[in-house]
Recover the amino acids of this structure.
């Protein structure tokens, strides 16, 4: 095998490994609708979880959290208060 073919094969293998590190696994939690996408290099969590419910008020946590290589890159979570009549 020539040097050029070896180099092309090595590059193709490296690109394939990198692509496999970016393919996410989807996890859905039964806490109100939180969905997490996990791959080897990153984790994206779409939060929608009930924090507190008392009387006619429900407090949920919503937003997006993004981690790359385990480090928090973006945290857009917020508390949302919903009041029900009746």
């Amino acid at each position: 095998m020539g040097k050029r073919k070896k180099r092309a094969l090595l590059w193709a293998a490296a690109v394939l490994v990198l692509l496999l590190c970016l393919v996410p696994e989807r996890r859905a939690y039964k806490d109100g609708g939180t969905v997490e996408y996990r791959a080897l290099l990153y984790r994206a969590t779409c939060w929608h979880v009930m924090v507190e419910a008392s009387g006619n008020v429900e407090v949920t946590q919503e937003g997006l959290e993004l981690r790359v290589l385990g480090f928090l890159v973006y945290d857009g979570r917020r508390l949302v208060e919903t009041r029900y009549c009746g």
